[in-house]
Amino acid sequence: MKKKLLISAKVxxxxxxxxxxxxxxxxxxxxxxxxxxxxKGAKYPNPSIVKLLWPTIGYPALTHPNGSIVLEVDPSxxxxxxVESVRWNATITASRxxxxxVSYPLEFRRAWAAESVRWHSAKHRKIPAEIWNVEFxxxxxxxELYDLKVEGTCGSIKFEEEEPHCVxxxxxxxxxxRFVTLADIHVHERGISMPMQPQxxxxxxxxxEPLFFRDAIEQVNLIRPEFVVMLGDYVFAQRRxxxxxxEFQRFYDSLEYLDVPTFILPGNHDxxxxxxxxxxxxxxxxxxxxxxxxxxxxxxxxxxxYDWPRAExxxxxxxxxxxxxxxxxQGQIRGASDERNPRTYTGELAWLRDxxxxxxxxxxxxxxxxxxxxxxxxxxxxxxNERFAGVFTLGGKGKGAMALRELFSTYKVNLVMSGHIHEDxxxxxxxxxxxxxxxxxxxxCVYFDEGGIQDHYPGYRIVDIKxxxxxxxxxxxxxxxxxxxxxxxPGGNTNLDRLEQVSLEAxxxxxxxxxxxxxxxxxxxxxxxxxxLKGLSCVMLSDGAVPIEGEIYRKGILPxxxxxxxxxxxxxxxxxxxxxxxxxxxxxxxxxxxxSSALMGSQ
Length: 603
What we know:
alpha+beta; Immunoglobulin-like; Purple Acid Phosphatase, chain A, domain 2; 3 domains; eight-stranded mixed sheet; globular
């Protein structure tokens, strides 16, 4: 009997030893740098940001009619000549299809050399110690989004560069405005699903176009906020070697469908190393990794929370294609020797400290980042390790979450908006002096994620600002984002595979034939809230028009004498699909009847 027990014990110990050895070897492999996607010989796309350093498509300029804009230009093109020896010209051209060809020359005011106030750091490009500031006056133009072309001539040397969607002219002195936030768009290729990382092909056309992103853009254009903020993760870049570049190109091309300026900040998927170092592509095509801007006395700060060394950002393939991941995907922002003491901060954290301190008198201070240091309930899980494959803890242990919370508390940040975990969370954190609180709002993704039944859905947030106050951030529940598709269930489970009908749509029903030569749209709203839309407009030959529902909230004259009319309508709430019952939208026909029938176009 004792012999049998001894044999059983030896067998058990042997099995245990084999398990420990197997686990140890697997852990060593899983945590190692082995399996990284090769980068040698990788080719980078031609950069779109060369000598015109600001504004950019991802960091646009906000100005107003009869205002001004100060461009930042790399002086190296002038071959050592001074800024005073350059002759400057600039033109803005309307970005929207409706106004194609409408251009305005800008009046040059002055130019001078100074340190950049837009690029506070660059990891993959050299920003000169002194750049050239070139100031132009904006004429009395339409309040629209514009492409910019700038030219400089210095003797026989010439500089010319264009940047799309980078200048937005907005009315001055608005007491209220709104912006929209989008997170985790994840433009991706078809057929990337894996057992350990499932991803649906829903919303991707057979030729790879991100149709779900176009659905989102069309709804944002209908709302027409003053601007959009994208909170990171625009690509997937974590399945196949080299997939980043085609994904990035499709994302970049899709941006040109937006009719409003868009501020873009990076997420982890955007800065991986997948054949190319995606940080470099970002700086050469989108703009700086972190920055700030002002609008109507309010201050906005965009933060890069994926601050990992290159080796930690490399996408690795383990066991063939069974596991594909970057070593780190959680948040980190370096530069604090003591996270509780802002005086010790360096790098981006020191810049953020100084930026918030300098703008302490702003009407509100709002911060955008990808990894939230609070969500959920103050835990900051976006900076911690995740359990991977049910066994290993990977991806995180990043620094900086406490430092961010310290800065937001000390400098009284009013609102922090984030993404990353594809979940809706809203909470509050007390300021250090007890006089107020920071609201933090994490939000869902834009794409269809894994598909199937999930506790989230494609959505967005609208932020209304009025007289120094922040409006409601949630939809239906006290947490949820606004859904892009009817059939989404706030606070419950949604079958993503069944989402087809967009929540908000406008179909043109008349164009110069009905309503006495008018144009009109039928607007459908499947949301359970009324929604103000300002994105419908038309061009006419005649001066004067009569609205059919809604109101004309703005009009302008084009250089050729044609008139542009902008419509506003509040669409009543609809009845969303729930519990198997088909939704019923509220429908409103909105349009304009011109005084003459000379209708030119509409959008």
